[in-house]
Amino acid sequence: MDVPDLLRQAASRVPASATSGTGWTVADANEYLGHHDWEAALDILMELGDVHPAETSFWDLCAQAAHGMQLDRAERWCHWRRFEVLHGVIRADLQLVESTASGGRHMPIPGDGRLRPLWDIGDVTAAGNPDLYVARIWVEREPDLKPGERGAVRLAPLSPERWRRLTAGDVITMHEQMPMAGTASITEATFPQALRETA
């Protein structure tokens, strides 16, 4: 299936009445498709998918289209959003420690979900030590997050079932070595209802 067909199919999965945060609609995406501006159409569809509850099939189609256009970050975002549809959305305000501090990073956190640090979410092992879990980081609105900076992030845990008890206001810590590399305050923790019932 070629890129325009993938985008057309994705557009068909969004209600005509849906409007993005910047005012775009499915009609706008289809208009850009008609002008062969596939990247603009994809951008609009991703915005619509972020506002309107989209299914995994929508994000799969968008990811395939992004792959066909060699838009690596957009493809990664579509895979990220697909994960969130299945497992929930965890957003946080992350404050990294300075690079000169013990445990501090010397390089920025890449913003596209590649970094997989450990997190202390409050669980302990049988020996009484912090039980740390891996979660990927997506930096919102910026390409990266530099040492000592603060920014909005999304987290994708490798064991999402352990994170379902988190709620807005909870504070967790990020670790790449000891001591911590950052502190995150949860700003949103929403999970599909079926997951909440089994948590």
3D architecture notes:
- The protein is 34% helix and 26% strand.
- By secondary structure, the chain is an alpha+beta fold.
- The protein folds into 2 domains: 3-87, no CATH class; 89-198, Elongation Factor Tu (Ef-tu), domain 3 (Beta Barrel), CATH 2.40.30.10.
- The strands form 2 sheets. It has a 6-stranded antiparallel beta barrel. Strands 2-5 form a two-stranded antiparallel sheet.
- Residues 195-199 have low confidence and may be disordered.
Mean pLDDT score, rounded? 93
* Main β-sheet, spatial strand arrangement: 1-6-4-3-7-8
Principal-axes shape call: elongated
What proportion strand? 25-35%
Count structural domains.
2
Specify the oligomeric state.
Answer: single chain
State the name of the first-level CATH class of the largest domain. Answer: Mainly Beta
Tell me the layout of helices and strands.
Layout: H1 3-11, H2 26-34, H3 38-51, H4 56-68, H5 72-87, E1 89-96, E2 109-110, E3 118-124, E4 130-139, E5 144-145, E6 150-157, E7 171-175, E8 182-190, H6 193-198
Antiparallel strand pairs: 1-6, 1-8, 2-5, 3-4, 3-7, 4-6, 7-8
Helix pairs in contact: 1-2, 1-3, 1-4, 2-3, 3-4, 4-5
Summarize the structure.
With 199 residues, the chain is an alpha+beta fold. It has helices at residues 3-11, 26-34, 38-51, 56-68, 72-87, 193-198, and strands at 89-96, 109-110, 118-124, 130-139, 144-145, 150-157, 171-175, 182-190. The chain contains six helices and eight strands; from the N terminus they run αααααββββββββα.
